[in-house]
Amino acid sequence: MREPRSFRVEAIVLRHADWGEADRMLTLYTRERGKVRAIAKGARRIRSRKAGHLEPFTRVILQLAKGRDLLIVTQADTLDAYLPLGADLVKTGYASYAVELLDRFTYEEESENYPVFVLLTEILQRIATEPDPWLAIRYYEVRLLDFLGYRPHLFKCANCGKDIQPVDQYFSPAAGGVLCPDCGANVKGAWKISMETLKYLRHFQRSSYAEAQRARPSPEVQNELEGLMQKYFTYLLERGLNSPAFIKKIKKDDTLRS
Hints:
There is one protein chain. By secondary structure, this protein is α+β, with helices and mostly antiparallel strands. It has 2 domains: 7-80, CATH 2.40.50.140; 84-257, Recombination protein O, C-terminal domain (de novo design (two linked rop proteins)), CATH 1.20.1440. Helices cover 41% and strands 22% of the residues. The chain contains 9 helices and 8 strands. The chain has helices at residues 84-87, 89-105, 114-129, 134-147, 181-184, 195-206, 209-212, 219-237, 243-257; strands spanning 6-19, 23-30, 34-40, 59-66, 71-80, 169-172, 177-179, 191-193. The strands form 2 sheets. The chain has a 5-stranded mixed β-barrel with strand order 1-2-3-5-4. It is globular, with a radius of gyration of 20 Å. 35% of the residues are buried.
């Protein structure tokens, strides 16, 4: 049976770029097809009816048609614009981070991944509504790794297989998880991780979000956990992310102003 030339999708707009004289190239994460690209013809014109529905972070229903080389947006309707994300630069930064992380880890036309789509809508909603989305971001990171096949080993040594004891450990990106002190001390590129930080990482990995919200990590643990995740992502992606530096700059500027 031939696939229809026109179809509807539910999507989050990850990013857009100018295309030609008046069009926009959209990168979308869809509920039905995973990540796709599509052209919004005339979206940069002042009178375009589509433009307001196609901003980054917007959840939309789109009618897409198959063009010669790319999909074409023929209709767009907003389901949720997550308006607080555009009204607060820190929230904009966190939303950019969530989207960049997903964008870097996924490829076009991989296949539908409904849990990832739901996770993306949840994190955008949480960033938009929660006063401090730090915990929501960490939970998103851990869950995204699970859904994309990069779940780190946190309960047994990734090298020797022994149960992890309640003492400070090591984390090896190459081994894909935690190493016991005996193994970690001899593995090149392994980082030290405190037992307190590992406890929270495990908690996020095996808990619902409601359960994860009970966590109250100290500022020191927050910094260690955030730094470890950034190093792990840099290893997996073979390059750093752009949005964390933007978030730090905005927070620093806010501190100086206050």
